[in-house]
Write a structure and sequence with these properties.
Order of helices and strands: EHEHHEHEHHEEHHEEEH
Radius of gyration: 16 Å
Largest sheet: 7 strands, mixed
Helix content: 25-40%
Strand order of the largest sheet: 3-2-1-4-5-9-8
Length: 233
């Protein structure tokens, strides 16, 4: 049986526009899905808008955020080499995947929302009935995706993402380029929040799956694997 193919899209942006703070990929939002997929023998491709180096947000490497799975990969030279040499989106644009997954981190707020190649990949896979998933700030990559009908993909969809109160808790309200929660609502999506901020929350709307924050990383991987099983087994 041919292994399922998964595309994980990550950011290339390493700094906030102010130049005061570093940002990048939130590590656990990549590692948990990557680990679950590799355990099942799936073929995983890691790509970014420009290709090449994927910066990792130093906040995601602190002792209270670096979980066991993420720590294992962060200490794996082969995995770090993968992060140094991601494919560019133009390299992977013509390929078919069973899942396209947008990992988060504040860096994505700069290079995800207006990337035309990313939008094309997402639209093609979503309209083909294949799974599209995004977590935390990676959800920003869905904001400007339009379907062939001209409607925004997320219009009327039940979904989640990093909300404005969580941005306060993260102390990044003055650094981020826009309010993700407000942007989701502007697209007329049905934003679903966890009752308690900074706790796991996954929302499934047919073949669109979204996760609220970094603390959703582990559950996100579990849910995605179950949904792939339903669709392909």
């Amino acid at each position: 049986m041919t292994p399922l193919k998964i595309l994980i899209i990550v950011t290339n942006v390493s700094m906030y526009a102010s130049g005061h703070l570093k940002t990048g990929l939130w590590l656990s939002e990549l590692t948990h899905l990557y680990h679950a997929a590799k355990e099942r023998g799936y073929e995983v491709t890691v790509a970014s808008p420009k290709g090449g180096n994927v910066p990792v947000d130093p906040e995601s490497l602190k002792y209270f955020t670096l979980d066991k799975v993420s720590k294992t990969y962060w200490n794996d030279p082969t995995f770090l080499e993968l992060l140094n040499n991601s494919h560019s989106l133009t390299e992977v644009a013509g390929q078919q995947y069973e899942l396209v997954y947008l990992a988060g981190g504040h860096g994505t707020m700069y290079d995800f929302p207006d990337d035309a190649v990313m939008q094309s990949i997402i639209r093609q896979h979503y309209e083909g009935g294949r799974m599209v998933a995004a977590i935390c700030h990676g959800v920003g990559g869905l904001l400007n995706v339009k379907l062939s009908s001209g409607e925004y993909l997320i219009k009327g969809k039940f979904m989640t993402g990093f909300n404005w109160f969580e941005e306060s808790l993260a102390r990044r309200k003055k650094e981020v380029p826009f309010n993700l929660e407000a942007a989701i609502k502007e697209r007329e999506a049905n934003l679903q929040k966890a009752f308690i901020p900074m706790t796991s929350n996954i929302v499934i709307d047919d073949h669109l799956i979204t996760g609220q924050n970094p603390f959703s990383s582990k559950e996100m991987a579990v849910v995605i694997m179950k949904q792939l099983d339903k669709q392909y087994k």
